[in-house]
Design goal:
The protein has 2 helices and 2 strands, in the order ββαα. It is of the alpha+beta class.
């Protein structure tokens, strides 16, 4: 069983900041949201689908 890296750094993505693998979501942004007491669901899935 291989481990996948979930947090990565690449100079070509977001100027080398730590990001969630496969995204441009920085760890810095996630920590800022949690510090601002944003709900976990709003950090993980910021786009809400409205179903009528």
């Amino acid at each position: 069983m291989t481990k996948k890296k979930r947090i990565v750094s690449n100079p070509k993505v977001m100027t080398g900041k730590l990001v969630v693998a496969g995204t441009r979501i920085t760890i810095e942004l996630i920590l800022e949201k949690f510090a601002a007491k944003v709900l976990r669901a709003d950090v993980v899935c910021p786009i809400r689908v409205i179903v009528s």
